[in-house]
Amino acid sequence: MTSTTPTLVAAAAALNASKIYGKDDSEVRALDDVTVDFTEGQFTAIMGPSGSGKSTLMHCLAGLDTLSSGKVFVDGTDLSGLNDRELTVLRREQVGFIFQAYNLIPTLTALENITLPLDLGGVEVDQTWLNEVVSAVKLESRLTHRPSELSGGQQQRVAVARALASRPKIIFADEPTGNLDSRSGAEILSFMRHAVSDLGQTIVMVTHDPVAAAYADRVVFLADGKVVDEITSPTSEQVLDRMKKLGS
Amino acid sequence: MTSPVIRLTLRGVLARKFRILLTVFAIVSGVAFVSGAFMLTDSVKTAINSLFQELRGDIALEVRTPIAFGDEARAKRDPVPDALASGIKAVAGVSSVELNITRESTIVKPDGKPLKTSGPAFGISWVGQNGLDGRTILAGREARGPNEVAIDKASAKRAGYVMGDTVTVVGPTGKGEFKLVGLTGTGKTSGGGGASVCAFDPVTADSFLGAKGLADSIYIGLEKGASRSTVQKDIAKVLTSKYEVIPGEQSAKETAGAINDIIDIFGKLLLGFAAISLFVSAFLIFNTFAIIISQRLRELALLRAIGASSLQIRLMILGEALIIGIVATGFGILGGVGVSKGITALFNATGAAFPSATITISTRTIIASLLVGIGVTVTAAMVPALRTSNIPPVAAMRPEMGFTAMQRGKRLVAGAATLLAGIALLCIGLFVQPGGAIGILGASGLGAILLFLGVASLSTSFAAPVSAVISRILPFPIWPMTRSVAGRLASRNAQRTPRRTATTASALMIGLALVSTVAVIAASVQKSFKDRLQGSVTADYYVTSDGFQGLPPAFAEKLAALPELGKVSPFRASTAQINGESKQIGAVNVDMGDIVNVKLTSGSFASLAKGQILVHRDPARDLSLTVGSSVTITWQNGTTSKLIVGGIYSDSSIAGNWLVSLNVLAQASTAPPVDFFIGAKIAPGINIDVARAAVDKVAEEFPSAQVQDQAEFQKSREDQLNQLLIIVYCLLVFAIGIAVLGIANTMALSVYERTREFGLLRAVGMSKRHLKRSVRWEAIIVSVFGATLGVTVGVPLGVAVSIALPKSFVNGIQIPITTIVFVLLASIVVGIIAAIGPARRAAKLDVLEAISAI
Ligand SMILES: Nc1ncnc2c1ncn2[C@@H]1O[C@H](COP(=O)(O)OP(=O)(O)OP(=O)(O)O)[C@@H](O)[C@H]1O
Ligand SMILES: [Mg+2]
């Protein structure tokens, strides 16, 4: 735990965040007093054993779920003070999402899926930016296809493009390559890396894969709902090593 | 840039078009009945109005006797003396005057049988080639002298008569034979709107039709250029205030209006039926949307996660409902054309002559259909749509989280409150009866709706335990279903989603609740009716008419003259006002006491002969009348009679509420009398067959007469009631049909939703046959559940309504056990039918594809 950066200037941050499921005997502390922040323009990986609270942390940071106690901030805004409408706007404008699967609305084409957050907000699509994003994920020839006509890797690329299209403050990705073969996974990861390094995007990604984590600038380790360790500029060997130590 | 909400909505509908199809059908049928009702009334009314306008021809003015109150068209007016005609003719501006004599006359076919008509059978007076009215001679010439007749071309063709034939006609005075000299028509058409017409010259009409120097009214034609209003005033001057002069088209309008009223009743019946089917459809739509939304939970949550507001999601769902509503309404209006054509054809086939008409689709029809179709769809989708705001965005990743659904406790309270409010309203409507018919129908109708909603909402709470019980006790086919894997799975599924089980069942619940309500009422009415008839039918013979206008009085006179018969009495009826309210007064002779047992509780039948009146105990109680008190009757022609109550009786099933002697009626009104039925007893010592032969011989002269003995009469009365009930049942069966669709739809949706689960089952070795069986079992559980609920709600409802009905209508409750058991058993069949499609679909699933489905 080296970070002492004031949480308010980070792209996103959690302050003494706790999330408790159930009551009394069946109580589960999915997050236990977590304090962590994610610097702008950085690619952060979150790792940890299954059930350690990675997804929970992400959902809370993104305003998808609420904490039991503590605070989360996105771009300096305390999410606990927001109502449903404000959270909706925040998700639409400040946050991007990439899930492990089922990222896309099955009835819309790839292009429509990509521009959906913009369309929902009634925001004019920035055509140059869109073209750049689309060509970066190599989807030019697939834009009119429905999700059911795309491969898993292509679907994930659409999801990444969607997350980028609205130029959010921060993108959360929960095991974005979990369902993919290593080659498609590598494509996605290098594209996310490119988005951070060259386009200045902030990305937080949950992963179980040390190779994937090596694409990040920083790796945060969770165990039993607590932040237990972190590495900056990791290599896959380092990550693997640390994971072994954590006993996962 | 199209709005993403609109785009998502359109795509959503397209992606689910087959799943939505069944739902649409329910709405389509509801809208079809609404629009059909309007189209039917509109187009038939237009046709009838124009028919009667045409029949009016050149009649500029008409002289008739006025009535004091009541329905102008149906009133039995006092006639007008022929002698008035000459005075009217002398008025300046009058070009021609004709006597209108219209009486029932039946054409007898060459084979001796009466010519059946779908409208009335008239004998009329006819002057010259083409008279003032719209009827024309199409071939030959008008009848002249006592041995000639002209009949309408359509009837001549149907009876098989050609010019020069001898035609037998039965009129009010009996049978006559005439030479056919002309064929008539209306304008250029050969028919008379389903009526048959025999036209005689005025002198023959007067004698043969029994007019005796009196006409129904006098038609007046004007000279060119004469002012109608001036002539009208001048004629009024030569007449006394006993007569009125009206514009020629007025009575056409009145008659058309009276027929339109009957058509309106059909229209209302259809609308009532539409209401039932729309109510059931509303449940279906609600159900379909609820399921579709839970299937799309993940998709909706994803939309929320990437920034769609809950308003946008709600708009999207309501937009889908709007599209479905519009499409369904479109088809519904088309269906309405079919409905109105079908009903016209149906009624024409059974004898009611609706003129053939082109279907009129008025703006009102379209607006009403749109309001109903779209309104019902969107309203029903409203609750599921609002519920989407409970979808947590996290559900995009954790679909198992689902809705934060309404808590069980809360739902129980809401359901119970709705139920109690419904019961309270129903009781108020049925027993307190506020504000007349509208109040009663409004309160109890709304009460019933709340009752159904309450039960539907409560049933969610006990769907699981009841499903468990049902699956344990259904010994089908041979051993309990829970003994097989398929049965257990079905039972679990029904219990796992109690909300869906309950909503699916509720559509059937409503259908069957209505059926069992009606079944109880019908059984009670039938029983009461039968019990009463049992005691009151005491004559040996009854003669009724299968025509439109009853029997001519000559018939009763001829029967009374038969030595084989003892007591004979006709039953005549007239409208009169008592205490300001319109009543039907029956007129009989003293012999009626032995023919219909009205169960006198005080006084005597003999008092009728003294010009006194007999009163049923209900109105007697209401007006506090006892034997000896007097009552004032205002007849329709304005005369009043002050009559002494001579007796109180307790059975109004045949004779109605008020009885006077034929003499009293004859003194009050000179309108041509018509008998509704005639009762006769055999003279003492006469063999029954001999008597019957004598009666039948008289009846031969009156082709529209039907002679019935006691048992036949009783049966025909019961049959009339049964026929009415059958119509009601047919309509309800249709509502159940919609409910079946509902179950099929939900099962199909649920199979779709469980694709992955079924795939897994198949992968681990469940056979197609077992899978199908499992789906079937579940449908059976759901429909038995719905049927049980329906009967549980419907039977008490039926009992309550039966108690609320007037005592003279229902005086004992009868619960039709067989019908109810049949309904419950039939629900199993309903389940099996509803499961056919979904089960097949489940079995057809490709195992691999199914497992990889979402
Ligand atoms: N809705 C819930 N109700 C109860 N417990 C929950 C719920 N959601 C998560 N948990 C618990 O919270 C803990 C953290 O879960 P979380 O999904 O964040 O883990 P994770 O680190 O993402 O695991 P994985 O790597 O398997 O995805 C787990 O112990 C889980 O059982
Ligand atoms: Mg996780």
Descriptive report:
- The complex is a heterodimer of chains A (248) and B (854).
- Residues 1-8 of chain A have low confidence and may be disordered.
- The longest helix of chain A has 18 residues, at 182-199.
- In chain A, strand 9 (218-223) and strand 10 (226-232) form a beta hairpin.
- The radius of gyration of chain A is 18 Å and the shape is globular.
- In chain A, 48% of the residues are buried.
- Chain A is built from eight helices and ten strands.
- Chain A is an alpha/beta fold.
- Chain A starts with 11 loop residues before the first strand and ends with a helix.
- In chain A, the strands form two sheets. In chain A, strands 6-7-8-3-9-10 form a six-stranded mixed β-sheet, sandwiched between helices.
- Chain B is of the alpha+beta class and 854 residues long.
- Chain B folds into four domains: 1-60 and 249-401, no CATH class; 61-248, no CATH class; 460-538 and 711-854, no CATH class; 547-703, no CATH class.
- Helix content of chain B is 56%, strand content 16%.
- Chain B is built from 24 helices and 24 strands.
- In chain B, the strands form four sheets. In chain B, strands 4, 5, 6, 7, 8, 9, 10 and 11 form an eight-stranded mixed β-sheet that branches. In chain B, strands 16-17-22-19-21-20 form a six-stranded mixed barrel. In chain B, strands 3-13-1-14 form a four-stranded antiparallel β-sheet.
- In chain B, helix 1 (4-15) crosses helix 9 and helix 12 packs antiparallel against helix 22 (768-804).
- The longest helix of chain B is centred in the first third of the chain and has 48 residues, at 248-295.
- The radius of gyration of chain B is 34 Å and the shape is elongated.
- Residues 402-406 of chain B have low confidence and may be disordered.
- Bound molecules: adenosine-5'-triphosphate and magnesium ion (MG).
- Adenosine-5'-triphosphate (ATP) is lined by residues 21-22, 28, 30, 48, 50-56 of chain A.
